[in-house]
Design brief:
The complex is a heterotrimer of chains A (550), B (338) and C (285). Chain A is 33% helix and 22% strand. Chain A is globular and about 75 Å long. Helix content of chain C is 69%, strand content 0%. In chain C, helix 2 packs across helix 4 and helix 5 packs antiparallel against helix 7. The N and C termini of chain C lie close together (6 Å). The chains are: A alpha+beta (550), B mainly alpha (338), C mainly alpha (285). Chains A and B meet through helix 1, strand 1, helix 9 and helix 15 of A and helix 2, helix 3, helix 5, helix 7 and strand 1 of B. Strand 1 of chain A pairs antiparallel with strand 1 of chain B.
Chain lengths: 550, 338, 285
């Protein structure tokens, strides 16, 4: 008899639990989105058959992108500075776009541009007939408003506009930048961050809807369909029918982002056809992808390198000899070997493909030299043990590999390295307070130009943001400040300036070691064609370029 | 009875207050600036200050605790720093998925654990008993995260018998959208007759539910075996044997019923345990439940979300215990005296 | 985990530990402990010796369990990992059992409001499933082996407190304790001489039963990145590091996982056997 009561108890516990979850009241999951492809293809198919006869090739498939992180943290194109670039780059557009193949800047919302006054005056002609997703039409006034709003917000990558003095609109299709100092505006306007042109008024008026991902104000080929932060399928985009670039029937009208933190899982989903694009595989799976039918493996060099920043301001690493010893202790060749293709050895701070990349700066491990330097500084095998702390990114296998190799190498020269994997915000928070000896992080530029490595990471700053080597050197600062003008006016001189600066920072100051430049190892479904990797827009797939193969 | 009820309720309230205080203290000490987590990696100092202001992160701790309790009571479980939605709303979406997984796991555990336990008791000291004890002992010794990875690799990756991860094929959301009533996908698909989602969910459920089931199945099998052996040595069993009933009949007809008693209270106990064990399973199988939510929250230093999950699981546990005790008090007056 | 109402003192029952399972468990544990203790002598390579040009090598004669992503010998790391796991288990159990038994015995013997306060506090802790509270704590503290020990010990002591409180309560009402009290023996002496020793047997059984759980929890915490840090050899951490390699390089994950399984299994078997031997009537969890 009694066990019936027990059953009742279990039942009640279940009901209590259910009550907490119940009352969904007949909502449809993912409500608010478009249940059918936004072209209305399926609904019209039922009613007007003659319509479908014309559009038999219409692509009603959804292209699924599998990012390993949550997609959106900030919907505001002015301040966005994170992983949402993979969505925003398809929703918003800038005046120009960097072309990774020609290494030139291509027209986008601007059709042509000229510079004058020794690089201090830039005039952009705007494309005609461009519509915002909010219904308005793009003109010079709207573009000016957007850029000025971004500059005023001052968040994210807004610094890219620092050179701008005034923006003028001589007529509805002309935008003129007057600069404080010469700067490469064609490159700057191609930035993946903070260079978007948007309907500023609509953003301001509907701030809440924008923050909730219900509304966007771009000109790009796609617009937000649904956004559910924290869900597996976090974000879906749909085609913007009035896109100035037009629509071919075979292009993807719907795009979904399916967050898949585990690389193995992402790979399985790709193989089973549930997703179309995986942004990063490990070398082992990438090798497997190359041999798998129905999958294309794509390898592309990136603009992203790993920085091992030494604390030049405080602690034992204030001594430049110890910093040099650390530079010599890193097993660069071993690391690249163990990365098995996920990275290539770096030569200096600037990755290949960018202005100022200098060959011949490849570092090499030299433990004897390291030991010598340590001996000089009063450490090393016969002296007291040196304890150093290092912080790196939680969950990053490649950084972990560096840490493992470095710890083992430093043990040989009597250095006890205490490495700690941290979530980015905790690591950064501690870094801003100068709380470690060695800070490991990736860096990549906001537009295809090496300036940001120097301005953000090595220009002295009282209020530390990314200057995590805490370097303060007036001479270096002055050289950095001269870079934009040189880039805009004299590329050859700019190249030389970058080369000199790298020697100063790496060899003389020993503020950083740069072990490798990451190589993207991606995979996408063999059913898709038109994908081109563009390292200036890291991990971005321009979905409008894609179409089904065959 | 009323006095017992009041005393027991008071106890439960006290425990809940303690749970809230403990959760608060733990989560308010998380390293890393939660404001940075919310405002993004490259936010300006002004933006950070604004976020701190908005979430009261600059107030003294005890003020924050007071505000925290008041908010909890009024149903405001704070806003997740990571998802930017109210935590309660997030939990409302994540909890049913966990219930689904843990429920399925417990069903498997009961369905396999009880017969296996009976089998072991019937052949006590012989080969079936030996192998059941061995496997049940192995089942409770398995590291769940490793078992999850192993099953996923073998049965999903290599053999391809089951889907790798997720709750159901998300493409079905557009082709056959699910109408929600209970928020538990399997149940909703069943009552609305949404067969594509129902079958997809079932096939996605198999592997993670098996992993969740391993531990409780082992515990239940051991428990059933032990109680049955005890029952079988009692007077009524001796009499039944004398009356000529066969051993199997005695076990299943007469001994099993009383033996199920402790099993049912055990299920209530392992329920909360299974939810937390399910965290690791959810992380591996990308199951959209509390576990994935919690693991996400941990890596983003999402204090309110961690607090929310901790609180919810602890409260469910306290409530379940309370209900069990109260009903026991109704059934069995002796329990009230304790 | 509940309270065996009363169990015979340990020494009287030890000879009865003939359960084959318990014996097998004891032998296994002895072997594992031996391997862990002797790791520096029997491991073919130092646990942190890297060889990046020979990484992810499949098991062969030179590397029985293969090598990991940094070219370290997995077999040597599994051996050293045993040291970490056993160290964690022993420390956690020693700390939590000591704290729990002391509090529990005081609560059980004293009764009244002392008991109420202590028991309500344990109730609060017991309202959290062990892993959940450990996770929450480990998030707060700097992740390390010490953190794992603290986080698990904090969630484990209440069980011992509850167990020994009920033991102590029943012992405190026995005639000889009453007699001692009447004779004016001070409370702390009674606790020390009579109550404590008599509560120990069930606690010891519980400790051997819990060791497996502690090892599993510790591994889970390290797996979640909240415990041991690179380059420590720890089984949970090794599984975490190899998990993206499971489909391509199975050995990196499989061996540390098996090591966790085997060790937890050995302790569970021993604990189960001990419990059966000490109290054949009470075989229920």
């Amino acid at each position: 008899m009694r066990w019936h009561k027990r059953l009742l108890v279990a039942g009640i516990a279940g009901v209590v639990a259910l009550a907490a979850s119940a009352c969904a009241g007949g909502q449809v999951r993912g409500a608010g989105g478009t249940p059918q492809p936004s072209t209305g293809q399926e609904s019209t198919a039922a009613t007007t058959t003659e319509n479908t006869a014309e559009n038999t090739a219409e692509n009603d498939a959804t292209f699924v992108y599998a990012p390993n992180l949550d997609v959106v943290t900030d919907w505001d194109p002015a301040t966005s500075y994170s992983n949402e670039i993979i969505a925003l780059a398809n929703i918003y557009e800038g005046l120009t776009r960097y072309n990774a193949q020609t290494k030139e800047v291509d027209p986008l919302l601007a059709t042509e541009w000229t510079s004058g006054d020794d690089g201090k005056l830039w005039t952009f002609k705007l494309r005609q007939g461009v519509k915002f997703h909010t219904g308005g039409t793009l003109d010079a006034e709207a573009a000016k408003k957007a850029i000025e709003r971004t500059m005023k917000a001052g968040g994210g990558a807004a610094y890219i506009w620092d050179a701008v003095d005034t923006i003028e609109t001589p007529d509805a299709s002309t935008l003129t930048f007057k600069l404080k100092y010469a700067a490469p505006m064609d490159l700057i306007t191609s930035s993946g961050y903070a260079a978007h042109i948007y309907d500023a008024d609509a953003l301001e008026e509907n701030a809440e809807d924008v923050e909730d991902g219900k509304l966007d104000a771009g000109t790009g080929p796609y617009t937000i369909d649904t956004w559910q932060k924290g869900q597996e399928t976090e974000l879906t985009l749909k085609a913007f029918e009035d896109y100035w670039g037009g629509w071919q029937p075979e292009q993807y009208k719907k795009v979904a982002f399916r967050v898949t933190p585990e690389i193995t899982t992402a790979w399985q989903l790709l193989r089973s056809g549930e997703v179309g694009f995986v942004q990063r595989l490990n070398p082992q799976l990438f090798e497997q992808a190359g041999m798998t039918e129905g999958v294309q493996a794509k390898q592309a060099p990136s603009f992203q390198n790993l920085l091992v920043l030494f604390n030049t301001a405080d602690g034992p690493l204030k001594d430049v000899r110890i910093r040099r010893a650390l530079q010599h202790a890193i097993d660069y060749d071993g690391l690249v070997a163990a990365l098995k293709g996920a990275g290539q050895k770096a030569s200096g701070l600037v990755p290949p493909g960018l202005l100022g990349h200098t060959a011949g700066l490849e570092p090499k491990q030299d433990l004897e030299k390291a030991q010598e330097l340590l001996q000089d500084a009063g450490y090393g095998p016969d002296n007291p043990e040196l304890k150093l702390t290092l912080t790196y990114a939680q969950g990053d296998e490649d950084q972990k590999l560096l840490v493992t190799l470095l710890t083992a190498a430093l043990k040989q020269v009597n250095i006890d390295l205490q490495a700690r994997a941290m979530a980015w915000n905790a690591q950064w928070d501690q870094g801003k307070k100068g709380g470690q000896d060695i800070f490991v992080m990736y860096w990549y530029p906001d537009y295809a130009d090496p300036y940001s490595w120097f301005l953000n990471v090595f220009r002295s700053a009282d209020d530390v943001q990314f200057n995590l080597s805490y370097l303060k050197d007036k001479e270096i600062d002055a050289a950095i400040d001269g870079l934009p003008r040189l880039t805009a006016t004299d590329q050859l001189a700019a190249h030389q300036a970058y080369a000199d600066l790298q020697k100063k920072i790496i060899d003389e100051q020993a503020a950083v070691a740069v072990p490798y430049v990451q190589t993207y190892q991606r995979a996408l479904s063999a059913d898709v064609q038109g994908y081109v990797d563009n390292p200036a827009y890291p991990n971005v797939v321009f979905f409008h370029d894609l179409k089904p193969a065959g | 009875m009323p006095r017992y009820l009041i005393r027991r309720l008071g106890q439960a309230l006290l425990v809940m207050a303690g749970v809230v205080a403990l959760t608060f203290v733990i989560t308010r000490m998380v390293p890393g600036d939660p404001a940075v987590a919310y405002a993004g990696p490259k936010a300006t100092p002004e933006q950070l200050a604004e976020v701190r202001e908005r979430f009261g992160l600059d107030e003294p701790l005890w003020v924050q605790l007071g505000a925290y309790v008041t908010d909890l009571l009024s149903g405001d479980w704070q806003t997740s720093l990571h998802t930017r939605r109210p935590v309660l709303e997030d939990l409302y979406h994540a909890f049913p998925a966990s219930l689904e997984l843990v429920g399925a796991g417990l069903v498997i555990a009961v369905v396999t654990g009880i017969p296996v336990g009976v089998l072991a008791a019937r052949f006590k000291g012989r080969l079936p008993d030996f192998s059941v004890r061995l496997t049940s002992m192995l089942a409770v010794s398995l590291p769940v995260f490793w078992l999850a990875l192993a099953l996923q690799t073998v049965f999903a990756s290599h053999l391809g018998w089951f889907p790798v991860a997720g709750e159901y094929d998300s493409a079905l959301d557009t082709t056959s959208p699910l109408t929600l009533w209970t928020n538990i996908t399997l149940v909703d698909a069943l009552i609305t007759g949404n067969w594509p989602i129902f079958t997809s969910t079932l096939s996605h459920l198999v592997l993670p539910a098996l992993v969740v089931a391993a531990y409780p199945a082992g515990v239940i099998a051991q428990m059933v075996r032990a109680t049955l052996i005890e029952e079988a040595s009692q007077d009524h069993a001796r009499m039944e044997r004398a009356l000529g009933f066969r051993e199997t009949t005695i076990l299943t007809r007469f001994a099993l019923r009383p033996a199920l008693n402790p099993v049912l209270s055990l299920i209530a106990l392992v329920f909360a345990y299974a939810i937390v064990n399910g965290f690791l399973v959810e992380a591996v199988f990308n199951w959209p439940g509390l576990g994935r939510y919690a693991v996400n929250a941990i890596s983003h230093s999402d204090t309110p979300a961690v607090a929310g999950v901790t609180l919810l699981v602890a409260l469910v546990y306290v409530l379940a215990n309370l209900v069990v005790d109260l009903l026991q008090g109704v059934v069995d007056p002796r329990a009230r005296a304790r | 985990m509940s309270t065996p109402a009363e169990a015979a003192p340990l020494r009287r029952t030890l000879p009865r530990v003939t359960d084959r399972f318990a014996l097998a468990g004891a032998v296994l544990i002895a072997l594992i402990a031996l391997a862990a203790l002797l790791a520096p002598w029997i491991a073919p390579y130092p646990p942190d010796e890297v060889n990046p040009f020979d990484s992810l090598r499949a098991p062969d004669g030179a590397h029985w369990f293969g090598t990991d992503a940094a070219g370290r010998d997995v077999f040597s790391r599994v051996l050293y990992g045993g040291r970490t796991s056993l160290f964690i288990a022993v420390t956690v159990l020693a700390v939590s059992a000591t704290a729990g038994v002391l509090l529990g015995v005081v609560a059980g013997y004293a009764g009244g409001w002392v008991r109420d306060v202590i028991m309500r506090v344990t109730d609060v802790f017991l309202a959290f499933p062990a892993l959940l509270l450990s996770v929450a704590l480990a998030v707060v503290l700097r992740p390390s082996v010490t953190t794992v020990i603290v986080a698990i010990a904090v969630t484990w002591w209440p069980w011992y407190a509850r167990l020994s409180a009920s033991m102590a309560a029943s012992i405190a009402t026995r005639p000889y304790v009453d007699a001692a009290r009447c004779l004016g023996v001070p409370a702390h002496m009674i606790i020390l001489r009579h109550v404590l020793p008599n509560s120990l047997t069930p606690v010891l059984v519980q400790v051997s039963l819990d060791a497996g759980g502690v090892i599993l929890t510790a591994a889970a915490l390290s797996y979640l990145g909240l415990g041991a840090q690179e380059p420590t050899a720890e089984w949970g951490l090794m599984v975490e590091q190899g998990q993206t390699l499971f489909t391509t390089n199975w050995w990196v994950v499989t061996f540390p996982g098996l090591a966790i399984l085997l060790t937890a299994f050995a302790f569970n078997v021993l604990g189960e056997g001990l419990r059966n031997a000490l109290d054949p009537r009470r075989i229920v969890t």
